[in-house]
Specification:
With 610 residues, the chain is an alpha+beta fold. It has six domains: 101 residues, Rossmann fold, CATH 3.40.50; 153 residues, ATP-grasp fold, B domain (D-amino Acid Aminotransferase, Chain A, domain 1), CATH 3.30.470; 70 residues, ATP-grasp fold, A domain (Dna Ligase, domain 1, 2-Layer Sandwich); 128 residues, ATP-grasp fold, B domain (D-amino Acid Aminotransferase, Chain A, domain 1, 2-Layer Sandwich); 43 residues, no CATH class; 68 residues, Beta Barrel (OB fold (Dihydrolipoamide Acetyltransferase, E2P)). Helix content is 26%, strand content 30%. Helix 4 packs antiparallel against helix 5, helix 12 packs antiparallel against helix 13 and helix 13 packs across helix 16. It binds ligand MV4. Ligand MV4 binds next to strand 6, strand 8, strand 9 and strand 13.
């Protein structure tokens, strides 16, 4: 077994991987940028190495800095998580070539070959995995695009050979657009992927996005772990993922999963991977009619990494995918057969992004988690790295946590998700929790008939704004020059408990005298008579009494002083806060009943003013 694994990532996925290491009794090494010195993954790790400045290109993406950290730490493997270097074949190759350090992932060769989409299409076609009708060699001329359009009909997709995710695709709707879109696709391919080659596919107007989880070892064992439905996307960003898909019959899901397994086998693939498919949706289908074995499905691409939404599959199969990634990377054989893989129940993953859905999903530009109180209880899994009090790091992506909910069936999963999202209390930064709660009441999503087009083309913006109003929490963090003191009280009225929250802005002053701010019973002028005071009041002055039990930190007045209303007479520390005690009225101080360091009870006289 490995002794020590370096996790070349940050945030929740770094912690997720370290948790697997912990359970396998493997030491953990974090890397961090200057922006992440105090981040959760650094706190979690046994040791941590700075790999550079905040800019990802200068730290998390710096091949040499990451490999050097592994060597310094004496780590015997690197796990890349997702994003950053996870699908970088060149980096994987460097790790493979580093003495004493293993790559926890597919071979650099697989990554390179499957990353080239035309190559991947050829491999899948040979393995009898359906691919979208189109070309498997690059096209050069607009004439080829037009010819394809005439033969197969429009629209036609022009895709970059090096593309994937949401990038490098152009849609041609008629012959007139062919020339421009081809040039534009080539330019983008060159700019983003250093590869101007493009190929063609028939463009499917309204597909579902189904992906199959694969895990394979170095001994030729390949298993599929069922599918996930990731059709709920916004601008190519997944928002909620679930499994099993609410739209497929068992016959169709088995056909798709088995073709992915066959494809991985044919590619000689090992470690974890995801096979993405498009499934043609039937526009007239109702929620109760599922897509059957005769529906068209097409291979799209392979993601050669662990994915954000792997957790959905873990809930359904009870298989710890990250642990198996680590085990197979050190040549262990998979310990289960395909027939041992049982999918049970239903799971959903909610990405908790620090974004304001009502403001076009604008990412938060800063803030502090003044409250962070995640949900729990049956069927609830939280994958996160932040804790209450943490500052939001805005240098990378906006996803701060994942809530994964399991239920016996989809209905229970939805109700449980509503319950869990309602429990989730985050203050100080905006999140898309209100948006998730809207989706769980949305007919299209709840009916499972939504496709990849739904959020971008059919959802009404007003409904998002309403959701934000209804379920959004306070996202204003206190600015440095204005102190906000929040206090929570429980009051009982007629035998019923009420939680009351009070917010004081500006200097936290406790008004002296009768105008109690804490809702206490007014004290009669002329003295405190509740028996709590040892000091007697001379003359007919007005006493300033303590509003709560505490310690006198400072006395600001002496006998004979002339003071004005609003002047601070002393500072009282109570409930770990310093409170200025101010005079309600001006006058002459005739008595000072306390000194610095005194303990006082509520109601004790502090000073008397005449
Ligand atoms: C497609 C398609 C329709 N037809 N290819 C978008 C990202 C890239 N990975 C592939 N994508 C698509 N390819 C053909 N031939 C529609 C999409 C697509 C999409 C795919 C998966 C999930 C969400 C999507 C949203 C818009 C378009």
């Amino acid at each position: 077994m490995f002794d020590k694994v370096l996790v070349a990532n940050r945030g929740e996925i770094a912690v997720r991987v370290m948790r697997a290491c912990e359970e396998l009794d493997i030491g953990t090494v974090a890397v961090y940028s200057d922006a992440d010195k105090d981040s959760g993954h650094v706190r979690y790790a046994d040791e941590a190495y700075n790999v550079g400045p905040a800019r990802a290109a200068d730290s998390y993406l710096d091949h040499d800095a990451v490999v050097e950290a592994a060597q310094k730490a004496g780590a015997d493997a690197i796990h890349p998580g997702y994003g950053f270097l996870a699908e970088n074949a060149e980096f994987a190759g460097k790790v493979e070539d580093t003495e004493g350090v293993k790559w926890i992932g597919p071979s650099a060769d697989s990554m390179q070959q499957l990353g080239e989409k035309t190559h991947a299409r050829k491999t899948m076609r040979e393995a009898d995995v359906p691919i979208v009708p189109g070309t498997t060699d690059p096209v050069e001329e607009a004439e080829e695009v037009k010819k394809f359009g005439e033969e197969h009909g429009y629209p036609v997709a022009i895709k970059a050979e090096g593309g994937g995710g949401g990038r490098g695709m152009k849609v041609v709707r008629s012959a007139e657009e062919a020339e421009d879109q081809l040039e534009s696709a080539k330019r983008e391919g060159e700019a983003y992927f250093d590869n101007a080659n493009v190929y063609l596919e028939r463009y499917l107007e309204n597909p579902r996005h189904i992906e199959v989880q694969i895990i394979a070892d170095h001994h030729g064992n390949v298993r599929h772990l069922g599918e996930r439905d990731c059709s709920l996307q916004r601008r190519h960003q997944k928002v909620i993922e679930e499994g099993p898909s609410p739209a497929l019959t068992d016959e169709l899901r088995e056909k798709i999963a088995e073709s992915a397994r066959r494809g991985a086998d044919a590619a000689g693939y090992y470690n974890a991977g995801t096979f993405e498919f498009l499934v043609e949706e039937d526009e007239s289908r109702g929620p109760d009619e599922l897509l059957g074995a005769d529906a068209n499905f097409y291979f799209l691409e392979v993601n050669t990494r662990i994915q954000v939404e792997h957790t959905v599959t873990e809930e359904l199969t009870d298989i710890d995918i990250v642990k198996w990634q680590i085990r197979v990377a050190q040549d262990e054989e998979l310990g289960f057969a395909q027939s041992d893989v049982d999918l049970e129940g239903h799971a959903m993953e909610f990405r908790i992004n620090a974004e304001n859905a009502a403001d076009d999903f604008a990412p938060a530009t800063g803030g502090q988690l003044t409250t962070y109180d995640p949900p729990g209880g049956i069927g609830v899994r939280m994958d996160d790295a932040l804790r209450q009090g943490d500052d939001l790091v805005t240098d990378y992506d906006s996803m701060i946590a994942k809530l994964i909910v399991y239920g016996g069936d989809r209905e229970e999963c939805i109700v449980r998700s509503q319950r869990a999202l309602a429990e989730y209390d985050i203050e100080g930064i905006p999140t898309i929790i209100p948006f998730h709660r809207l989706m769980l009441e949305d007919d299209e999503f709840v009916g499972g008939t939504h496709t990849t087009k739904y959020l971008d083309h059919h959802l009404d913006q007003d409904r998002i704004e309403e959701a934000q109003e209804k379920w959004g929490s306070d996202t204003t963090s206190p600015s440095s020059d204005e102190e906000v003191v929040e206090r929570e009280f429980t009051v009982e009225v007629n035998g019923k408990r009420f939680e009351v929250e009070l917010e004081e802005r500006g200097a936290a002053a406790i008004p002296a005298g009768n105008a109690g701010s804490g809702g206490e019973k007014p004290q009669p002028a002329g003295g405190s008579d509740d028996g709590g005071s040892d000091a007697s009041v001379d003359g007919d002055g007005e006493s300033v009494a303590a509003e709560m039990q505490g310690t006198i930190l400072d006395v600001n007045v002496s006998e004979g002083d002339e003071i004005a209303s609003g002047d601070v007479v002393c500072v009282l520390e109570a409930m770990k806060m310093e409170n200025d005690v101010v005079a309600e009225r001006g006058g002459t101080v005739t008595q000072v009943a306390v000194a610095e360091g005194d303990s006082v009870d509520m109601g004790d006289v502090l000073v008397v003013i005449e």
